[in-house]
Amino acid sequence: MDSRQLSYFRSVVDHRSFTHAAAALDMTQPSLSLSIRKLEKELDVQLLTRGRAGVSTTEAGDYLYTIAIKMETLMTEADQRIREIAGGLAGSISINATPEFNWAFMPELLSRMFEVAPDVKLFLEDPEPIITLERVLDGSIDLGLMPSIDPRAFAQQHQDQLVVHVVTEFPMLLAVPERLKDLPDEVSLADIAHETWILPKHHDEFPGLPDLLRTAWFQNPESKPAHIQEVSTLQTAMPLVAGGIGVALLPDSAQRHAGDHVFFKKIKGDFPSMQPILIYRKDKDLSPAANQLVDIILEVGAEGKYH
């Protein structure tokens, strides 16, 4: 028994006539009758009876008719869903994004994606950047969003494996606890050298904030802090600053999520910005839905919708 036989059978039942069903199916009546007889022989049961009122179903035919309706519904749904997946309107996307990207962009990204493709399922996690990089490289996730201070060097390092897009630019601000709120609106690194600096871990795989600050401290030794406390992500730094443990460098988007006990100061001089990057494997064909999300990420980044 196959889907074509079920379709023929249903048409005969719906029309209560082999002749009318054959006409609707654009086939000859003998061919249709032969198909139904083969189906009955295959199932070893009578499905239809002929009478003056036309064709009617037996008990077995009644049951098979409900199955035929269900199968047609499933086939229609499958056809529609496959077309939606091919058009980027359905399917699933796995994405890892660092907290600072979630603070700034994720609400706008999700809103736009849901508007154009409400049936696409997004699986979002916010691990530390090194894990995001590892997952993209091993193919366990589709997209990664990571902070970078040197996207060109990162892209060159991974040119054989990754596609790298610079999404936007985040100005960096100094987050200080309440006890330092009366510092000037602009401070130099030397002004806070006595404070504990809260920094994400250094990773050889990509340059980050630790590298940026170590370069600044090397150029200005008087600004090098006596104490550094490492954290997994910048999100972890926020409560430590609020608790008075020390200071941290955060993207300006963090101001909206800092609470009442964290204050922000500008850093004197031409201090570099953070440039979030979007990464995915070169040899992995992204789904239409994932490609659509890539376009939205770059669009929102270009518009600066995090402000």
UniProtKB/TrEMBL annotation:
Family membership noted in the UniProt record: Belongs to the LysR transcriptional regulatory family.
One Gene Ontology cellular component annotation held by this UniProt entry: protein-DNA complex
Record-given protein name: LysR family transcriptional regulator
Domain HTH lysR-type: 1-58
One MF term in the entry's GO annotations: DNA binding
Keywords: Activator, DNA-binding, Transcription, Transcription regulation
Protein source organism: Corynebacterium phoceense
InterPro entries registered for this protein in UniProt: LysR_HTH_N, LysR_subst-bd, WH-like_DNA-bd_sf, WH_DNA-bd_sf
